[in-house]
Amino acid sequence: MFAFIVGTRPEIIKMAPIIRECEKQGITGLTIHTGQHYSYEMDKVFFEELNLSDPDYSLGVGSGTDAEQIGKILVGVENVLMNEQPDIVLVEGDTNSVFAGAYAATKLQIEVGHVEAGLRSFDRFMPEEINRILTDHVSDFLFAPTVKAKGNLLAEGVPANKISITGNTIVDAVHQNLQLAQKRESVLSELSIEKNNYFLTTTHRRENVDNKARLNGILKGLTELHYEFDVPIIFPMHPRTRKRVVEFDLALDGITPISPIGFLEFLLLEANAELVITDSGGVQEEACILGVPCITVRDNTERPETIAVHSNLLVGTKSDQILSGAKAMLQTPHKWSNPFGNGDAGERIVSVLTDAFKACGVEI
Ligand code: UD1
Ligand code: UDP
Q: I need a labelling partner for 219 at 20 to 30 A (CA). Which of 166, 187, 227, 259 fits?
């Protein structure tokens, strides 16, 4: 039996292709939701849109400091795993849910597979970087999306026989849902926008939005983009960001903030945007896959493949850099090849695991 641990929006989206593949192959799966994300538009909407069964276990840990979240997840996941004794636990990404889930499993000597292994920003101030490193080093199966990610793992001494290059399941998720997303075109008229005549933005990284100067720089940059290019700036706002905008009393001049939206609506907005401005990991990847130019309001990225193919530019959080970065990206030819695989990552991951279990005579 496979146990899938999910906790946040991107984990649900990127784990879905693996859950789907297991269902197709008749492999028994169990989903444990930590409850790190819990608002309807950050959680349940993805289960509905991606047609996923409700989680078998919902731990309901909610928000808190890193230690509070990690501590509660450790205890909750340990409890479930002791009762269920799965053959393998799969985690995806770099959140507190991922690290705590992997750590609880490894302490019980249950094998761990880390999906999206080997990503590095080389910035240890990011909570995600710590989670990635720790998760990679307690995992038994490391599913690296790219050659670069595998190289990062080898450089840290992870044995090569634990690592498989599989592509990123976000490509599967985009391919599996893009057609369905086209049916959500009404979102364009609801927002009074036209295809290829608006910019789409998201920002939620802790180091950006919890820092007044950085968040202010980003918002000022977005305002300048609105006036310079005369386009709506559509901003589905993460709850962390919404909270900080209010707390820091920052202006949203020329920006159209909306609530976070479902994956299908978001894909549609991304695919038809003229430019994407983000600090999200998943959004950098999706823009690259969809052929939409992107600027990233950060000083580093764990997705350097997007920079290498020129789909993405790192611009930092100062308004003048955001403006000049946008101008540069809009002039770049929109032709690059997607470095994240063919959309068969889910199948490849399941096949690595089934082969490994078969080789040691374990029935899954
Ligand atoms: C987390 C991950 C981050 C990931 C992001 C995906 C960590 C350390 N961070 O950041 O890597 O990119 O999820 O979106 O694991 N809130 C709600 N409703 C929710 C969830 C959160 O209102 O459903 C609010 C709460 O005020 C909470 C804040 O958002 O305090 C932040 O949530 P949290 O899960 O701590 O971190 P994220 O910023 O979402
Ligand atoms: N996303 C979404 N609705 C939104 C904003 C983002 O469905 O309003 C999706 C997006 O398509 C991507 C994922 O959420 O697949 C990215 O999640 P997030 O930016 O929260 O986290 P990160 O990828 O940075 O960890």
A: 187
